[in-house]
Amino acid sequence: MSSAKKPEHPIPYGRQDINADDLAAVVAALQGDFLTQGPAIAQFEAEFAAWCGSRYAVAVSNGTAALHLCTLALGVQPGEKVITTPITFAASANCVRYCGGEVVFADIDPATALLDIEAVRSLLDAAPAGTYKGVIPVDFAGNPVNLEAYRALADQHGLWIIEDACHAPGGAFTDSKGNKQRCGNGQFADLAIFSFHPVKHIATGEGGMITTNNPELYEKLLMLRTHGITRDPARMHENHGGWYHEMQTLGYNYRITDFQCALGSSQLKRADAGLARRRAIAARYDAAFSGSKVGTLQTTAGADHAYHLYVILSTDRKGLYDYLREAGIFAQVHYIPCHTHPYYRGLGHQPGDHPRSEAYYSQCLSLPMYPTLTEEEQAYVIEKVLAFHA
Ligand SMILES: *Cc1c(COP(=O)(O)O)cnc(C)c1O
Predict the structure, then answer these.
(1) Does residue 64 sit in the same domain as residue 138?
(2) Ligand 1 center to residue 304 CA distance, Å?
């Protein structure tokens, strides 16, 4: 194999793709009448809901705000227990803490690095009924969780489900009837959330979305997004005139801007093309690493992976990380197990609590994965990863 040259600019693990159409869409929104609450928001929400197959979508300032609004809308109370995975971005767990709830981690399935439903089942079976209020599975790396299985378990134990679908817009799993179920389509989870941070599939700068099929939750989210205020006369206790509105609950300002949503709509037009490109990149990595010493993760049976990340497993992860960095490849680690962060240790969680997550963490590395990664760049990444393991 010929040795490719070190790239002029480092190759990141993920990056946004902004084209001339995106720029034109943002400029048009900026030249319009509304900077914040204009028509581009409702348009982006409607387009995103249609794309996911959900009834409703609520655009918000970022994915973390989306998670917080979900725990608020579901009414998480201080001390209430909610289950999630250690292998996720901390926000998946933190949203429970924002409401004073208690985060209970369950370990991962090492084959997929997804929250292990059997570990969740064990927790539920071992506790008195009503101990747990909800579960937050994460479509980690873009690999869709089988939410039909989670729904059945959640219904047995009276739990709600928030699907953290930040990694998986456009992903789908196959249900027991053989139907494809798109991430965030609201068929099984009560609420699903997405992020439009630049490393995610669709970029709006900062930005997020909640999808749901539940009309009551939808109405709550709309109010909570904007201070708990309603201007809908049908919902008000009194009405003093055209200016009148009521703050009915303690909400937040988690609104997104009109020009960000104009960017989101423009980006959404290329989401399917971006997914196809991500899948082609993954197929090439798969082929390159099969039969090598480089470990990879399995995809949920029958699922369409959305490949936010392409994770490899290496017994000398630190060595590999440093070697790639030296070669101008900025691979990344996803994630440091959430329960081992000092904040969660301070709440009584400890290293050793979730050995499969910790073993996964010791080996995982996310390789460059984004639609504009060129074939040449990918060939260089593959060459370096294989050379390290030779
Ligand atoms: C990015 C991300 C979030 C948070 O999204 P922000 O828009 O950065 O607040 C939450 N969960 C997961 C799994 C993520 O990857």
Answers:
(1) yes
(2) 21
